[in-house]
Write a structure and sequence with these properties.
eight-stranded mixed sheet; 406 residues; alpha+beta
């Protein structure tokens, strides 16, 4: 005990990762326990440079997620909180509602199942016939649809910046973590690429695309591997064709929602994403290859099991990646009047998808703990929507670890 008192800790809680989940966690810790010293290390020169700042900006309703799951509970609660947060702090947002449209008969049972799931999750849903779709989207065609009124859009990068400013935490940008020395009886010491050392009582791993690697650096086996999937987007050159948000009926076997149409907070319409394997954790194009990371993905048994199990689905996604005509064909299912020249390439994103050894895609948020550490190991979409409740849950665990360390 005498040794603990002699250590000069730089902070109580050290958060690794300056995306929306890491910054929400820092914000929640200082709100729940004023006076707690929090430091956030982010390797990029600013916040929200990866999943947070490269998604479609949708505030998800929570309709897709299994009732009772963290995704369902946190998305429904988080959507309402995110709208309130944006309104309170003057952050650009809008509650637009969205359509989920069935374009083939085999999708109708899945559409009806979504209605039931929405009701179980407490989400108001309106069922529409083919003719009623035009009330919301005159250019969209389908056999049936549902309207989800609680879906919205916002500027998540601005949300992340406000969380950083309001947290009272020390935020260090350009601080890439290269080593973690965790001693359960003492705390953690983290070294950055610049040679700085930060000592803390508890570590919180919100490293997103690198969270499994960070867990292993800490000395905890995550039992999952992040397999990066790139989502490619186009911008619609004729944005007047789409009024709001239009989605296909998703395949329940995958956590991806399919190519959809999103009128963003800037007034432009984003189309996408598809979902193709990325050749690096931050592989935002086919030309970005990091051999060590690629070998890590390919050496994980779950990666091969996904490929064997879902090769037909993957082949379709790859086709849409390399062929603009194929991508346009997917869009035409919802928006028949669109032409290939209407699609203008836009920035891609990468989804940090946790995969189990047996090839199962982890379908819920995953938070695990080790001695003096809390690891967020699966927080892809709808994590931005759910970031405020996720942050509170991670903060609760981090504060409990701090209390145990006293």
């Amino acid at each position: 005990m005498e040794q603990v008192r002699k250590i000069a800790y730089d902070c109580d809680a050290l958060v690794i990762g300056g995306g929306i989940v890491g910054l929400s966690t820092a914000y929640a810790i200082t709100r729940a326990a004023p006076g707690t010293r929090v430091t956030v290390l982010e390797k990029e020169p600013g916040p929200a440079r990866h999943q947070t700042g490269r998604n479609s900006g949708v505030i998800h309703s929570g309709i897709y997620y299994r009732p009772g799951s963290l995704k369902a509970r946190y998305a429904v609660r988080g959507a309402a909180e995110m709208v309130k947060f944006c309104a309170e702090y003057g952050i650009a947002h809008a509650v637009t509602g969205k359509l989920i449209v069935a374009t083939h008969r085999e999708e109708l049972p899945r559409l009806h199942a979504l209605v039931q799931r929405g009701r179980e999750n407490g989400i108001p849903v309106r069922e529409l016939g083919a003719a009623q779709i035009a009330e919301y989207e005159p250019e969209v065609r389908g056999l049936a649809a549902i309207h989800v009124g609680t879906t919205g859009i916002c500027d998540y990068t601005a949300v992340a910046r406000h969380l950083a400013d309001a947290s009272g935490a020390e935020i260090r940008y350009g601080a890439r973590v290269v080593r973690v020395d965790r001693r359960p009886g003492l705390g953690v010491a983290v070294r950055t690429a610049r040679g700085d050392v930060v000592r803390a009582r508890v570590l919180v791993n919100c490293a997103g695309l690198h969270c499994d690697e960070m867990a292993r650096l800490t000395g905890d086996e995550p039992e999952v591997r992040i397999v990066p999937f790139r989502g490619e987007y186009y911008e619609l050159a004729r944005p007047e064709l789409v009024r709001g948000l239009v989605y296909p009926v998703p395949d329940p076997a995958f956590p991806f929602l399919g190519v959809h149409l999103t009128r963003g907070i800037d007034g432009g319409v984003h189309i996408g994403p598809n979902a193709v394997p990325a050749l690096a954790r931050e592989g935002y194009g086919w030309g970005v290859v990091r051999p060590r990371e690629l070998v890590g993905t390919l050496s994980w048994p779950g990666s091969w099991r996904i490929a064997r199990r879902h090769w037909r689905y993957g082949a379709g996604e790859l086709r849409r990646s390399v062929s603009k005509a194929a991508f346009t064909e997917a869009v035409r299912r919802l928006l028949p009047c669109v032409q290939e020249e209407d699609l203008v390439p836009s920035a891609a994103g990468v989804r940090a998808q946790a995969v189990l050894r047996d090839g199962t895609l982890v379908d819920d948020f995953l938070i695990r703990e080790g001695p003096r550490a809390v690891h967020v190991l699966n927080a892809p979409s709808p994590a931005a929507t759910a970031s405020l409740p996720i942050g509170r849950e991670v903060a609760r665990r981090a504060l409990a670890a701090l209390a145990d360390a006293e």
